[in-house]
Amino acid sequence: MAAGNVLAQLGAMIASGGIEVVDCSGSLGPDTPLLKLPPDFARDTPPIKIHRISEYDKDGPFWAWNWLELGEHSGTHFDAPHHWITGKDYADGYTDTLDVQRLVAPVNVLDFSKECAADPDFLLTIGHVKAWEAKHGAIGKGEWVVLRSDWDRFADDEAKFLNANETGPHTPGPTAEVVQYLIDKGIVGWGSQCIGTDAGQAGGMNPPFPAHNLLHKNNCFGLASLANLSKLPPKGAILIAAPLKIKNGTGSPIRALALVPKA
Ligand code: 23J
Ligand code: MN
What we know:
Elements: H1 3-16, E1 19-23, E2 49-57, E3 60-69, E4 77-79, E5 104-111, H2 113-118, E6 123-124, H3 126-136, E7 144-148, H4 158-162, E8 164-165, E9 168-169, E10 173-174, H5 176-184, E11 189-191, H6 210-217, E12 221-224, E13 237-240, E14 251-253, E15 257-261
Parallel strand pairs: 5-7, 6-10, 7-11, 11-12
Antiparallel strand pairs: 1-15, 2-3, 4-12, 4-14, 5-13, 8-9, 13-15
Helix pairs in contact: 5-6
The structure holds oxo(2-sulfanylphenyl)acetic acid and manganese (II) ion.
């Protein structure tokens, strides 16, 4: 089929609701959970603030608008390759220089929500992914891969979302081996429903923070704090995850949208 016909059909299906647009972002505000780094690092991302400029008042009689104070890596957000030292030299590794063709791609939704509920330190292994592929089909080049942990059910409670104790945060994520396995398949990026792309205990892995280290070393993207993955099929949806075009940006909050065929 010619590409124009495919797109015309897609447009008609979106307009009729035969293809649903699922919101894979959480809301962004002062109560959105934010990453807390171990105390040996001096600076965390600052609290999110939404400042009113005017709302039909003396500062603007007919209009309402706000200005924002927030880190690039806040809420549902995008990690660009330049975010990590291993990806620092990619000219196309910033939010304003990356290849937008890679932001719209088929998404593989790996549902390990039961395992994550049973063990908050659940780590996805190559064995898990191969078993998933045997059941649902191979993960292909140019695709997104996201771990469905259903962690978004904690997004209105930062303490539960971060799940930290005296031994640090306890949230699920990938092993280093699985990240490399997916990179070798040519994925565009990896996404998580937790605060970052890595597991809570990933600082102690080899290499430390393997999702960050390996994804960005290979010019791949990361997505964090994704929502509503329970509304996506294992395969067959298209994910659109586009950061703001921040000059020399290392990431950005996103409105992640999935195109999903209606059941
Ligand atoms: C900075 C340092 C460590 C980490 C992170 C940021 C993230 O998770 C992030 O938002 O990219 S682990
Ligand atoms: Mn980030």
